[in-house]
Specification:
This protein has 728 residues and is α/β, with parallel strands linked by helices. It has four domains: 2-64; 90-323, Alpha-Beta Barrel (TIM Barrel), CATH 3.20.20; 380-439 and 554-716, 3-hydroxy-3-methylglutaryl-coenzyme A Reductase, Chain A, domain 2, CATH 3.90.770; 446-548, Hydroxymethylglutaryl-CoA reductase, class I/II, NAD/NADP-binding domain (Alpha-Beta Plaits). It is 42% helix and 19% strand. It contains 28 helices and 24 strands. The strands form six sheets. Strands 7-8-9-10-11-12-13-14 form an eight-stranded parallel β-barrel, surrounded by seven helices. It has a four-stranded antiparallel β-sheet with strand order 2-3-1-4. The chain starts with a strand and ends with a helix.
Length: 728
């Protein structure tokens, strides 16, 4: 029996408690927490449930496996890349592409642009190359690591690069988001230990002559020494054919993914050794279960310094990416050309001058320009948007300026009644802009539908039936939403949760990729369609069938750095970091902290026709997911200033809802200029982050009242009851 402990468990105490049950254990070696205990053969027979009941015990595995840490590794993992990108392995198809070897800064920059435009998320490229002949190109070395990191950062990609020796581990770990251990080093145990100690995610290539068991054991070495996570990469083993470089063992891909439930990558480039077979083998790899496809690409394969014959041509990479259903992350702006969001002294201009400058800068359509001039809402449209309508109600539409997000400028329309929200966000965005702007990413737009079932006679059996008929249920769900499926979305997965076994309360979650829509209607349709089916299978009564406003598979992640000099000094930076810590420790403060974030997000949400109540509900539920209500955005001191990170669910859409019906929303969409709901989510989250930064800066500095009240005073002048006297 193998016993996995909980993260903070005291191994000695657990072992003593086990001895009390008659179990003699030995702690498996390795430097990693939590510890693993192995039960010795001369122990008494004890039911696993009794062991599981002991404090500190996380899991009990009945049979002895040689690789308990590999067995316990989760299949999905969020890889947070240095460039700010977050990749959720196991939940989305991921493509990694790049040259065999990084040859020059120009070569890797050119390829990074291509890779990013294809929709691939990771840039590969070797700085240190394992070559069969000592006379072949051995890689450009440490310098190439820098070129690779710069190219990835410029194009918002993660980095995979190979480490060949213990001496290179530090340098490689510095730039690699996924450290590659090559085929030839799969059983270099000293290297595996050194790589593991870095605590990062590792891509472990299978040795050319390695059995699956040896490969899994190599993964165990990495994990035992502290690796965060291991992706097993099949790249071909020794075979009988001379026509391919290796034999790509797709059986092993399927085995690891489906039987061992491990994260798997496939490298058809080294598997085939020839360009014409790479794309078909990549697709076969995905069909077999690979989460990640790793391919080599070169703009001029004939001139490549290594592995030219297997490098895809740029067009082939684009075809492969499209075949995998990837969406290019950053398409060129739909309207006009690249524009700036930096409009200095905009606030000093008259409203009419501002409109003209905006229209010029963004190349606004005639419709949008007309809307800006007159604002408002046609009564006929208003009457169709709600019930019992008697009038329309107006609020100011303003512009959040200076936003730079993932290398692109965005002017953000904001509608809010509170003074200082827009100025504060624009101000903070200007400070962040000086260090490159915001970086971020959103998951695919997967919404959650819930179906409640009550009085189910046997919830455990019901859960099993639903799990077993998962594919059938997903197919039924998709029949209800053919148009979404045709657009590339649809139901992708489901979960079963037993909430109360005694009373037969069970809830089924259906996960639906809603593409660029907010998706509430789509998931509600799905929930209603599958409910009768569920009832037929498991009995009981159908309860609610509705979306959850806590869409945990629809998250946005944004980061930024801001220099202390731009903030107004080290003291302010310290003060903001302390304020962030305060919010982390205290729900009373976290509530106000999060309100500051939502100041910005809600203002953009209203302008852009989004359901801000859904956003609020999701944000607060997410903040309260752990035992304590937490801040959605946190700030830490860095050498140069502050590093901020924000993560939250954000269910918003760029199609459907009021995006088309309301001319103000159409205009706002034209102004913000995004190509997808995911991109909009990142921009909106950046606005939240800027609002938070501005609020903390004011609070840590002069206090909120001074600046805030100046703007309030201006508004109070308009109060017919207070007049100027009221403002004073
Ligand atoms: C590579 O990916 O560049 C490489 C050398 O791969 P492998 O270790 O699979 O030969
Ligand atoms: Mn290669």
């Amino acid at each position: 029996m193998i016993i996995l402990l909980e993260p903070q468990a005291d191994a000695k105490a657990v072992s003593a408690a086990l001895q009390g049950l008659g179990l003699w254990t030995r702690q498996l070696e390795g430097e990693r927490e939590p510890a693993i205990l192995e039960v010795e053969a001369h122990s008494a027979r004890v039911e696993p449930a009794a062991v599981l009941a002991l404090p500190g015990v996380a899991q009990v595995r009945p049979r002895r496996s040689q690789h308990p840490r590999v067995d316990a590794m989760p299949r999905t993992f969020a890889l947070r890349c240095g460039s700010g990108l977050v990749i959720r392995f196991g939940e989305e198809a991921v493509l990694a592409a790049g040259p065999c070897a990084v040859e020059s800064p120009e070569q890797i920059q050119q390829l990074a642009a291509l890779v990013a435009s294809s929709g691939a998320r990771l840039l590969r490229g070797g700085a240190f190359k394992p070559r069969t002949s000592p006379y072949s190109f051995q890689g450009a070395g440490a310098e190439a690591l820098r070129w690779l990191a710069e190219a990835a950062a410029a194009h918002h990609l993660g980095v995979i690069t190979e480490v060949m020796s213990e001496l290179q581990v530090d340098a490689v770990a510095e730039v690699a988001d996924l450290i590659q251990v090559g085929s030839r080093n799969m059983q270099n145990f000293a290297l595996l230990a050194a790589v593991g100690r870095k605590g990062k995610a590792v891509l472990l290539k299978r040795g050319r002559g390695a059995s699956v068991e040896d490969w899994l054991m190599a993964g165990e070495h990495l994990l035992a020494h502290g690796a965060a996570w291991v992706v097993f990469c099949e790249r071909g083993i020794a075979g009988l054919s001379n026509e391919t470089r290796n034999t790509l063992d797709l059986g092993a891909v399927a085995l690891l993914r489906h039987a061992h439930k491990l994260p798997v990558a496939v490298d058809p480039s080294h598997g085939a050794g020839r360009r014409d077979l790479v794309v078909p083998l990549a697709k076969a790899g995905v069909a077999a279960g690979a989460d990640l496809v790793l391919v080599e690409v070169h703009p001029q394969p004939a001139l490549a310094k290594s592995d030219g014959p297997q490098a895809l041509l740029p067009d082939q990479l684009l075809q492969l990416a499209a075949g995998l259903g990837l969406q290019p992350l950053e398409e060129p702006p739909a309207i006009g050309t690249a524009h700036t969001s930096r409009l200095p002294e905009f606030y000093k201009k008259s409203v009419e001058e501002r409109r003209r400058q905006l229209a010029r800068t963004l190349g606004l359509s005639a419709d949008a320009q007309r809307y800006l001039r007159h604002g408002g809402l046609d009564m006929a449209i208003a009457d169709r948007m709600s019930e019992n309508v008697v009038s329309t109600f107006a609020l100011p539409m303003a512009l959040g300026l200076n936003f730079r997000v993932n290398g692109r400028d965005h002017v953000v329309p904001m509608v809010v009644e509170e003074p200082s929200v827009v100025a504060a966000a624009s101000n903070a965005a200007r400070m962040v802009r000086a260090t490159g702007g915001f970086r971020g990413d959103a998951t695919t737009s997967v919404m959650t539908a819930q179906v409640q079932m009550d009085h189910v006679p046997d919830t455990a059996a019901a859960a099993k039936v639903i799990e077993e008929r998962r594919r059938e249920l997903v197919a039924i769900a998709n029949e209800a939403i053919p148009r979404m499926v045709a657009r590339g979305g649809g139901c992708v997965d489901l979960d079963v949760r037993v909430l109360d076994a005694e009373n037969g309360l069970l809830v089924v979650h259906l996960y639906v990729d809603v593409g660029d829509a907010m998706g509430a209607n789509v998931v509600d349709t799905v929930a209603e369609r599958v409910a009768p089916m569920l009832q037929e299978w498991v009995g009981g009564d159908i309860g609610l069938r509705i979306l959850s406003n806590l869409p945990l598979r629809r998250l946005v992640h944004v980061e930024c750095d801001v220099g202390a000099d731009f903030l107004g000094g080290e003291e302010l930076a310290d003060g903001i970091a302390r304020a962030s810590r305060f919010a982390e420790m205290d729900p009373f403060r976290a509530s106000t902290h999060n309100k500051g974030i939502l100041n910005g997000i809600d203002a953009a949400a209203v302008a852009l026709g989004q359901d801000w109540r859904a956003i609020e509900a999701g944000a607060h539920a997410f903040a309260g997911l752990s035992s304590q209500y937490r801040p959605l955005c946190t700030w830490q001191r860095t050498e140069k200033g502050l590093h901020g990170v924000l993560e939250m669910p954000l269910a918003i859409g760029t199609v459907g809802g009021s995006t088309r019906a309301h001319p103000g929303v159409r205009t706002a969409m034209e102004i913000v200029r995004v190509d997808s709901a995911r991109q909009l989510a990142v921009v909106m989250a950046a606005v939240g982050m800027a609002s938070n930064l501005a609020a903390l800066r004011a609070l840590a500095g002069e206090g909120i009242q001074q600046g805030h009240m100046r703007l309030h005073a201006r508004k109070s002048e308009l109060d017919p009851h207070l007049g100027k006297a009221g403002a004073a």
